[in-house]
Amino acid sequence: MVTSLHQCGSPKAQAGYALSEMVVASSIFFSISLGLLMGFTSLERNYAATTDFSHNHADEMRISDYMAMDLRRATAVEAATNDTTIYIPAYYDSTGTPQTPTLDGEGGVYYGALGSSVKVHYYLLAGTIYRQQDSAAPIPLAMNVQDFVFDVTDIGKVVTTRITFDPTFNSSGASTSAVAATAFYNTTLLRNSRTDVESSVY
Amino acid sequence: MQKGRSTKAGSILVWTVLVIAILSLAAVETLRLVTVKYQNALQTSTWQEALLAAESGIDLAIVELRKSLYPQPNQAWQGWNNQPGNNVTGYELTTVPNAGLNGTPVTIETSVDAPATLIDPTNSWQYYRIRTVGTIPINGPARAADNPQDTKLRRLSLRFERFTNGLLATHALPTDANGNPQPQVSRRVEAIVRPVSAFDEAIMSVGIVDLTNQDIVVDSYDSNDPTKSTNGLYDVAKRQENGDIATDGQLIDAGNAQIFGDVATNAGTVSGVANITGVERTDFYQEPIPIGAPSWNSVNSSVTTVNGNATITASATQGSAASRYILSGISESGGKTLTIAGASDGSQTYVEIYVTGDISVSGTGQIVIQPGVSVTIYFAGNVDISGNGVLNGNNQPGDLMLYGIQPPTDTSEHVNFGGNSQISASIYAPGHDVTVNGGGTNGHVYGSMVGKTVTMTGVSNLHYDESLGSKGMINNYKIVSWFEDNR
């Protein structure tokens, strides 16, 4: 074998080149593979976090819009973190048809029976935020939102809602500032005179 | 050698294609995410704008209702299909071009009606129901949101009309030149507006409010509510805090006043207030409705001028010819008395007097209003009442209402209202400078004052009767109920 190699000319140089080439090639291959693996893993995590952020933001917007719609027409508000109750006029009858308003004798009007209202309850339960109207079946507004926090601040004529969630960009958990940066605010002017506090826009 | 180069070149090509494929996938996915977000944001903002359009419809209706309060011709409801009234529907279909997102047109449908259930039995005031729909086209593709609750909330009409309960007509999606339906979004709001009295505040002035002459106390009571008055009269123990003062101008000079109520200016200041129990606002403006001369078809001509002892007889029928008088003027002095006589048993009677000239009462002259008589005086000239002044037998400011007919532009007219006795009156004269002269440190004025300027001289107490808020002339409309109908 040796004789044969010598016969071929420059056997040492040829063998050394093959070994070093293999080492270098292997190193480069593993380095690139490792880099790609880490890159793809990072990219995948980032993609998942971005998608999660995007979905959560859409959830925030939907919850906020639902609450703002009810707050605009509210006559009373009971605010608490992740649990808010809004009372709106009993505008519809049992068949869902709008009712004719009636004067209440004190400068206001009411729908349906005097003193009646519809209770709309927003709450977070088992990772889902629900909207429940009176005793009807609750409707899930957003699911897999166990990290959501919605705060409702009642200032009388206006009510501010603030919704946050935990972004998942950092595997060790979101910092306080990162959570605060997800806050979705909505300040809503209550159009109706309130029955629970002395406050009225008009 | 050639074979070796060929192998290396193939490897690079594979890597290049692989990298491009990966980057392309990433780009496509990113673009998809961004597009979905963009579409969601666009649809949501259009949905929000539709609410603004619907609320604009309420504003349009209130403008027409306010116009209808002005003296004729007021051009109210011009361009509307019908005029509102009891069981009559007035409505409008308006397209405001280029007001929406990206210059898209906004369609506002407005319906105003007057249900019989919205007539106040105490004063026959009609409340109005305003229903509006705002519609805006949606830009971009007709793509539904990911979450069904988004669809349920916003009820976007993408491929077919979801808003099936059109206000004025059945909605249908518009189509483009090729007949393809164009997506749009509609929102519907119902508001109830109530009439507002010209006497909704203790003092309302177009210009300056000057209370500097005394350390005046301004508060309120309600002659209709026994918990807020005693036998229909003011009781300091039942004092209320609705003695509001407002000006369209910039200054309320309160002269160390104590105000049991709110004060409001038009981006102005309130100076010299010892105490305000309510809020101080700077965002007030309310255009006072001018008073036009009464246009009565027939009147009681038994008295046409008053200059000495005279008697005007009230009628039990409000608005009847017997209860209406047109006088060229009233001038009483030197022990002369104008008696406005009612029923002998003191039952409710009414009289309306239109004075085309001035009203003057001085010295021992006097106007005596007998119990049970409700007096409304329209005056075109100046008013100067002093001396024995006006004796309001009911002691109710709602039973003596004075309306100043809007003087011609650039003329200066005034109301100087005072007298030795306590004053119970409601004065609405937004074209006149109103001065109320009270009885000094013991003087009490009951009622409400509206003037071009309002000055209190020698008045130490002004008590606003909250029941005036549902009496007298309608000066405005306010929203008392608002509901978004999101069926």
Sheet having the most strands of chain B: 17 strands, parallel
* Overall outline of chain B: elongated
Mean of residue pLDDT values of chain A: 87
Low-confidence stretches of chain A: 1-6
- β-sheet strand percentage of chain B: 35-45%
Q: Structural class given helices, strands, pairing of chain B? A: alpha/beta
User: Radius of gyration of chain B over alpha carbons?
Assistant: 32 Å
Q: Could you give the distance between the termini of chain A?
A: 105 Å
Quickly count the helices of chain B: 2
Q: Which H/E pattern describes the elements of chain A?
A: HHEEEEEEEEEHE
Q: State the share of residues found in helices of chain B, binned by percent.
A: 10-25%
Helix % of chain A is 25-40%
Order of helices and strands of chain B: HEEEHEEEEEEEEEEEEEEEEEEEEEEE
Which strand order spans the largest sheet of chain A, edge to edge or round the barrel?
1-2-5-6-7
Task: Supply Rg of chain A.
Answer: 32 Å
Using DSSP, what is the number of strands of chain B? Answer: 26
Please state roughly what percent of the residues of chain A sit in beta strands, choosing from under 5%, 5-15%, 15-25%, 25-35%, 35-45% or over 45%.
25-35%
Number of domains of chain A: 1
- What kind of assembly state do the chains in view correspond to? heterodimer
Question: Helical element count of chain A?
Answer: 3
